[in-house]
Design a protein that fits this description.
heterodimer, A: about 230 residues, mainly alpha, about 75% helix, B: about 270 residues, 9 helices, elongated
Chain lengths: ~230, ~270
């Protein structure tokens, strides 16, 4: 057997192994579909190998990010997302260049909305933690009990500030979503009133620019200095 | 910062520099974003490749969809190349022996054996060459810094192959009509010879469309690069994608020729 023959033999042996793996992995598929996959996995196994190797990973990935809770923010984001998709989809053949240019930033904007919502939820979780009784232990010296009282007051103030930060983050997110909806409606209006493509470009660029506003959501100028008991 | 931005926006500050487009006429209903094409079917996917290649680019990026998409794209490729091989075999069988291209003349004895060899060489060769070049494309992506998995690379490559296949199916009837006309009307052998050579190269001509699809899909991945480096890295990515295309163009004909010689020699 010549060199090419040996290489092909090895190739098909690996192909058979991959085909067996595909057969075992595709238990949920229908008979014909499964048959096609197994048959094509023998000669074309390099295409199936990444598929088999990637399938093992989701169990690890699934644990990592908890799915966002279905709440008011999720619903609002989903709605604006759908409207934005519709508006961007309607740019086809009119101002698709700007869409291609700004696609990355629009994706970042969506990620920023989700991150902002998650940040608000995280603050909600912190604020929902039980306060405790608040009464001081009786067996303390006057000095120690004064210090403890001061700590509790500082804690209350910090929580109050956290509540304000949370409210501001929530307001910002909702305002941003409302603003994007407004721009989306302007895109539709511009399209149907025969506005030039430059008008759509301007509007899409503004939507994309919003990412810069939201990406600074942990805003340096919004830092609330914590109250310290010291 | 954010609150300031919003107040500027809603206060029609400098950020909101858009002029009102005149009077608001009415509420505009939201349009359906995409045409209703079933991307879960073979025909739907073929239709998408023709009408909305950008949507197929998006699908190729979605790892969760690859388990369904890859076999479908492969099926499109196999059907198209099988039809191409069948058409080529019929033309070669009916052409005068001295009009046959020199690369296949010695092994073209007529009958089913060279026909099967030709089909296997093209079908397996085209896809196997992709398999060989797959890891290099993945490493090129890592070198540039785009966030791409081997599965997404496979998706993009198969999308390119399927685009080639669809284009091949599009130009095949025209080619067959022309060459069949030459055979029927006894065109001079040297002209027929040239046209049959073009026939052997037809998948490569259609391959330009596939290469463009891969190039476009891969450049879209540039949006995973950090914004501060995107412009410079995109230029690098563009060059590496072209380099990969050149490498693939060199590997594929060699692969097909080698497989053709091997199968034709074994089956003869």
């Amino acid at each position: 057997m010549d060199m090419l023959g040996q290489t092909l033999l090895m190739y098909f042996i690996v192909g058979i192994a991959v085909a067996v793996a595909v057969y075992l992995a595709d238990a949920a598929k229908s008979g014909a579909e499964r048959g096609f996959r197994v048959a094509t996995a023998i000669p074309f196994w390099p295409l199936y190998l990444p598929l088999l190797l990637t399938r093992a990973q989701p169990a690890v990935e699934e644990r990592a990010p908890p799915a966002p809770r279905a709440d008011e923010m999720t619903a609002a984001i989903a709605q604006v997302d759908a409207e934005l998709d519709a508006a961007l989809g309607s740019l086809d053949g009119w101002a698709e260049d700007v869409l291609a240019r700004e696609k990355g930033r629009i994706r970042e904007l969506r990620a920023a909305w989700t991150a902002q919502a998650e940040r608000v939820r995280e603050m909600d979780r912190l604020l929902a933690q039980p306060e405790g009784s608040g009464s001081l232990p009786s067996a303390l010296t006057a000095d120690a009990s004064e210090r403890l009282r001061h700590s509790q007051r500082a804690r209350q103030q910090n929580l109050e500030r956290l509540r304000r930060v949370r409210q501001r983050a929530y307001d910002d997110l909702m305002s941003m979503l409302a603003w994007v909806r407004e721009l989306v409606s302007m895109i539709h209006l511009a399209k149907f009133t025969g506005a030039p493509a430059s008008r759509a470009e301007e509007l899409v660029a503004q939507i994309a620019a919003a990412v810069e506003g939201l990406s600074n959501v942990v805003g340096v100028d919004e830092v609330e200095k914590p109250v310290s008991c010291g | 910062m954010n609150a300031k931005l919003i107040s500027e926006v809603y206060g029609r500050g400098p950020m909101f520099a858009v002029e009102e487009p005149g009077e608001i006429l009415d509420a505009i209903p939201v349009e359906a974003p995409q045409p209703a094409i079933d991307d879960n079917s073979l025909l739907g996917l073929t239709e998408l490749l023709l009408k909305h290649p950008a949507r197929v680019d998006q699908l190729a990026r979605d790892e969760a969809r690859q388990a369904d998409m890859l076999p479908r794209l492969l099926a499109i490729v196999l059907v198209s190349f099988s039809m191409f091989s069948l058409a080529l075999v019929l033309l070669l069988d009916n052409a005068a022996p001295n009009a046959l291209p020199s690369v296949i003349r010695s092994n073209w004895t007529g009958g089913w054996r060279p026909a099967v060899s030709l089909w296997a060489a093209y079908t397996i060769g085209m896809v196997a060459a992709s398999g060989i070049c797959l890891p290099s494309f993945y490493f090129f992506g890592l070198l540039v810094g785009v966030k791409i998995s081997l599965l997404q690379v496979t998706g993009h490559i198969m999308k390119g192959k399927a685009s080639t296949a669809v284009m091949l199916l599009g130009i095949l009837p025209i080619y067959v009509a022309v060459v069949l006309g030459m055979i029927v009307f006894h065109a001079p052998n040297d002209i027929l010879h040239n046209w049959l050579c073009v026939g052997l190269a037809l998948p490569f001509l259609a391959g330009f469309w596939g290469a463009w699809a891969i190039y476009r899909g891969f450049l879209d991945m540039a949006d995973t690069l950090p914004a501060c480096r995107r412009e410079r890295r995109t230029c690098f990515l563009r060059r590496l994608t072209v380099a990969w295309g050149a490498m693939y163009c060199a590997v594929t004909p060699v692969m097909i020729y080698t497989l053709w010689n091997y199968f034709a020699g074994r089956l003869a």
